[in-house]
Amino acid sequence: MARLIANAKDIQGKSRRHTVRQIRPNWYKVKSGESQRVYDVALGVNGGTCTCEWGRQRPENDHRSACSHVVAAINYRAIQDGRRISAWDSEEAAQRQHRPMLKIGDGLILTSRLN
Ligand SMILES: [Zn+2]
């Protein structure tokens, strides 16, 4: 069984400390605020993939990674639209926000609100 992320607020906090640079449409370089390592993140409509260790271990049938690097890239993209994202690991908690929801894999749910 695929492992699920159970610490959405940790992921969200880490994602805020990364530096995101857009390379091409839907392609980003994300520099970790902790290790200073740079990862490639490709975004699709339902999340994205990442070259970090977690991202490379995603199951064969779903390559999406809900790591902090993908969350950082999605937040970067949301900011361009004047929005800001929050991360949740429980669907009930996400639904209580009454905001647009996006399930990005690994059990992680993002909501977005106008900034
Ligand atoms: Zn990653």
Summarize the structure.
The protein has 115 residues and is an alpha+beta fold. Helices cover 27% and strands 32% of the residues. The chain has helices at 8-16, 53-56, 68-80, 91-95; strands at 19-24, 27-31, 38-44, 47-50, 83-88, 101-103, 109-114.
Helix-strand layout with pairing:
Layout: H1 8-16, E1 19-24, E2 27-31, E3 38-44, E4 47-50, H2 53-56, H3 68-80, E5 83-88, H4 91-95, E6 101-103, E7 109-114
Antiparallel strand pairs: 1-2, 2-3, 3-4, 5-7, 6-7
Helix pairs in contact: 1-3
The protein binds zinc ion.
Structural commentary:
With 115 residues, the protein is an alpha+beta fold. It has one domain. The protein has helices at 8-16, 53-56, 68-80, 91-95; strands at 19-24, 27-31, 38-44, 47-50, 83-88, 101-103, 109-114. The strands form 2 sheets. Strands 1-2-3-4 form a 4-stranded antiparallel β-sheet. It has a 3-stranded antiparallel β-sheet with strand order 5-7-6. Strand 2 (27-31) and strand 3 form a beta hairpin. Helix 1 crosses helix 3. The protein is globular and about 35 Å long. The model has no long low-confidence stretch (mean pLDDT 94). Bound molecules: zinc ion (ZN).
